[in-house]
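tool_log.txt
---
The assistant was asked to compare two proteins side by side. It first ran the structure predictor on the initial sequence, then on the second. Raw inputs and outputs are pasted verbatim so the downstream comparison step can read them without reformatting.
(1)
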Amino acid sequence: MTEKSTEDLLDELEQNVAKALYEETVDETDETRLARSYSFTALSTAVRCPREYVCRYVIGLPDSLGGTREDDSTGTASGKGGEEPLSIREGRLFHTVVEHKWPVSTDASEWKQHASKLATARGWGDALPRVERLIDSFLASPVSSWDIDPDRVEVRFSFDFYGRTIAGHIDAIPLDSTEAYVVLDHKTGTHNPNREQLLLYVLATHLDDKLNMASPATKAAFLRVDNADEFTLDWLEIPNEEAAVEEAKATLKERIKAAEGATLDDPSPGPHCASCAYRGICDAAE
């Protein structure tokens, strides 16, 4: 397959923009235009760069235009043209093993055997050595002894927020040693996590009745790995639960406002341009 020229890509972009604008202004009623779905990643993108948000989430341009993209589950940038670097494969393999084994076993050999089968099936043998180290580290941490049900890992949520649907997934919501629900997000990459992400997830436990929780989460933390692949808990301070919920709502309103006001004419160049999938067709990229 031959690569498209920059001119061809710009023509395609212009056609897609025209189509998106037509559908939004002519085909949609005011009511359906409000019935949009947002994830934390999408809203964060709108704040970081409105142009990137429109390209990815409104027009739906492919990542194959070049550049890199951050993987939200690992906090690591993916490679050009959709290529996944080793750190992405390691993060995804570890996440899958935790999802499958944490609720049913604390036997490291079972976890590693499962990781090996998954790695072989996916052709990710090079990811296995680090994942085995992460398994040992996770099972040695206090988190592994927390009470976790199968339906409390990779928890999907969605809730209505002023006519918009906010959707996403939480890595885990275990009960800690005090029997309090903890929103837990695993980070195996190197990027600094965003506090707003945990706030949104705590809000989801308050507003999504489908989660069937006895009570909302009162604690939240990133489970991060250091340079030695040891896990540490990076806690979100919630001194006042009601205040935290109100802060999350106010932040969410601002992020939705940014997303719905985003246009292609409003690029926000900066260091993030280096990892943008659309830098090849952006005249503002640094």
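(2)
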Amino acid sequence: MIDDIIRTQIRVPGPLYEELKERAEQNHHSLNSEMILRLQASLTEQEQLLKRMSLLEQQNQNILQLLQQLILK
């Protein structure tokens, strides 16, 4: 597992850094852990949102097809 970790540096705006630091303290995490957890959560949320959007698009297409069938009758 330790081989999978890549050390990197990022530039963070001061207010965001302070907010992350406060949240890490509140959650009893290190700043690094807090940032990783939040990044992972944002990716998971994004994937779920994209899946929901795809499902809604398919449902919209189905509704349009049904409406077209009703109009043509």
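---
observation on (2): The two ends are 62 Å apart (CA to CA). Helices lie at 14-26, 31-72.
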